[in-house]
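agent> fetching stored inputs for the zinc ion docking request
agent> found them:
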Amino acid sequence: MPELPEVETIARGLAPLVTEKRIEDALVLYPAIVGGDAAAFRQKVKGRRILGVRRRGKLLILGLEGDVHLAIHLRMTGRVTVHPHDEERDKHTHVLLVLEGGEDLVFNDQRKFGRCLALTGQELALWPFYARLGPEPLEIGPEEFVQCFQGRGGRIKGLLLDQELLAGIGNIYADESLFRARIHPAASGRSLGRGELLTLYSSLREVLGEALQEGGSSFRDYVNALGRRGGFQERFAVYSRKGLSCTCCRCRLETVRVAGRTSTYCPVCQPSKQQAVSSKQQAE
Ligand SMILES: [Zn+2]
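agent> prediction call returned; pasting tokens
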């Protein structure tokens, strides 16, 4: 699933291609993607100019004139790309916006879990998913980050994935940042001290910054607005590397199920708190 760096990369790539372009028409081939009512969607977006493209959490948001916002959630396999109008359509194309100038903005989604909603500013603000999004990890300060997690019940991996605590983090960047911070994914939020949380804060921002520089991670389906793959998957330290050796200590990487998701981690670099205590006792 595209996370913060992937959606941000799409937004940055899309902005120069679509900003100031008018949407001449909207074709909806699979109405569930636009929330069910294809005619209402078309009526809301047709004829409006695109004013800008931004990201909030994992949402891609196109601001249209007249206070209409296209909120796009790519979920598992969604893609947003720009193509010449006469190009042959992929069979997974579900929404197609005909832009002035001869190009189409295409929403394509093999598994159809994605959404492309046309909302007024008020509807967007009242949309619970949007309204409850937590702060942006690249925008908050270290103290705010510590306050987000300190003393909180639940496993740290699950807390990082909670979009209401922090917006934009998914499995890839949670696993990578926990590895870099040397924190076990199943550690409880309560067990982590201020120092560990500050380390996690810097690790998460480092990982996100590097992934942004690489244009995101193309583990499965993700491509940017120009259809190009990202490069950060080449630099994964743990994600998708179960059974391979740790880049730091050469030990074999393992997985653990936390908050319903598989987490890959290094049992040596990221010992659980119990392990750490018992090996310390053994040493004594
Ligand atoms: Zn290791």
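agent> quick read of the result: Strands lie at 23-28, 50-56, 59-64, 68-73, 78-84, 93-99, 103-109, 115-120, 254-258, 261-265.
agent> awaiting further instructions
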